[in-house]
């Protein structure tokens, strides 16, 4: 839904006031989409992995341990860069606690599902599943 002229003017006034009050914050907000930057880092990471493996193979062909280790380190750094930016780059949303009017089953049927931060340890989940099956 497009903004009306009045709303656009108000938004422009708010933006100008923000730039006047805190120009550093305003420039950091205006710099662009986080996903674009994360995608770029993901692509750089993938390229580093390819280059690292090429250097690793080149080191093996040239029988150079230093070149092989350097290739491994470059590939590892690229993989780390790609993994750390994957979630933001793909737009995957972390599944947090469900809203009050959330969909889907709740309670024990959903135990063990969700984000990793609030997950029960594997042992507890397995024990809970066993108890549910045993009680049926």
From TrEMBL:
InterPro entries: DUF3040. This is DUF3040 domain-containing protein. Residues 94-136 are annotated as: Disordered. It comes from Blastococcus aggregatus. The chain crosses the membrane at residues 42-60, 66-86. Residues 124-136 have a biased composition (Basic and acidic residues). Signal peptide: none annotated. Keywords: Membrane, Transmembrane, Transmembrane helix.
């Amino acid at each position: 839904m497009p903004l009306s002229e009045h709303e656009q003017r108000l938004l422009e006034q708010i933006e100008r006031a923000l730039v006047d009050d805190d120009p550093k914050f305003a420039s950091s907000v205006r710099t662009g989409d986080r996903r674009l930057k994360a995608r770029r880092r993901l692509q750089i990471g993938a390229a580093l992995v390819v280059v690292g493996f090429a250097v690793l193979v080149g080191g093996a062909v040239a029988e150079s341990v230093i070149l092989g280790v350097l290739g491994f380190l470059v590939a590892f750094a690229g993989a780390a860069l790609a993994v750390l930016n994957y979630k933001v780059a793909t737009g995957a949303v972390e599944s947090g606690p469900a809203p009050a009017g959330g969909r889907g089953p709740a309670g024990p049927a959903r135990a063990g599902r969700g984000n990793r931060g609030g997950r029960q340890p594997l042992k507890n989940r397995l024990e809970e599943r066993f108890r549910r099956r045993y009680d049926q």
